[in-house]
Amino acid sequence: MPGVFQLPVKEVADEACRAQEVGLQAVLLFGIPEQKDEKASGAYAEDGIVQKALTAIKSKCPHLVTITDVCLCEYMSHGHCGVTRIDGDDFHVLNDETVELLARTALSHAAAGADVVAPSDMMDGRVGAIREALDAGGFDQTAIMSYAAKFASVFYGPFREAAESPPQFGDRRSYQMDFANADEALREVALDIHEGADIIMVKPALPYMDILWCIRETFRRPTAVYHVSGEYAMVKSAVEKGLLNERDAVFEIMTGLKRAGADIIITYWARELAKWLTE
After folding, report:
1. Residues 10-30: pLDDT tens digits?
2. Is 58 an annotated catalytic residue?
3. Is there a domain that residue 21 lies in?
4. CB of 77 within 8 A of CB of 109?
């Protein structure tokens, strides 16, 4: 995507510090390991890519809030968000086996310095399992930002290519939410809050502003929204074709998300927005 790059560990700390210098309060880390397998072992390894990045960032800019994506898709050789079993032409994502690995991953992130862990897998019960693991490990102050209402969406496409994690078979609709089902979003959010989520998230952003508003009004909890790669890429493409003014379009989008109830907006324009706001 224009302006978005994979960074090696030796560069990520400097990039994080530059983000802090322009006014950003937090960064959200995703990792791409050198090798992938069917156990996602790179996700929870002590010397994993995110664990190394956390150590590097905290050594250079210790007051920057670090949030880590807790999912297995980038580390799985097949690209799914969990442990899978194939039966003939069918495949199944094994919920309980996956939750064990997610809790292990979150705990390893906390041990490496994460301030917030953000499970994005949409497995049942993962927030409760992560909270239990963190508390038992002495990380009761590590917060959980749950991807509580994450819909199966075409707008994830550019990110999946960048993260080298498109599913090698099937799709993720069996565990991500049906975009036509608003009631399920409310149920999923309620469950995650009950299990101990500190912040709840809606993903993607623009097609789900009604969900964002409803969740914020219903639960009155800290609420995040993720303006995802496909949404970013559409605007960038229109800007490149001379159809939109980028700054004006971005401000209008972000204002709409804020108006719809977002306390936190996750966006690929974060650095640009921080600069534009001081102009």
Report:
1. 999 999 999 999 999 999 999
2. no
3. yes
4. no
pTM, two decimal places: 0.92
Structural domain includes residue 3: no
207-218 per-residue burial string, b: 16 or more CB within 10 A, e: under 16:
ebbebbbbbbee
Specify the 3-state DSSP secondary structure of 15: helix
Specify the number of domains making up the chain: 1
Q: Which two tokens stand for residue 92?
A: 């199944």
Q: Residue 278: inside a domain, yes or no?
A: no
Helix (H/G/I), strand (E/B), else coil: 197: coil
CB atoms within 10 A of CB 18: 12
Evaluate whether residue 279 is within a structural domain.
no
Q: Which of 36, 52, 58, 150 is catalytic?
A: 150
| Choice among 203, 241, 258, 275 that is catalytic | 203
At 180-193, the pLDDT tens digits run 999 999 999 999 99
- Domain containing 268: what range? 9-273
36 is catalytic: no
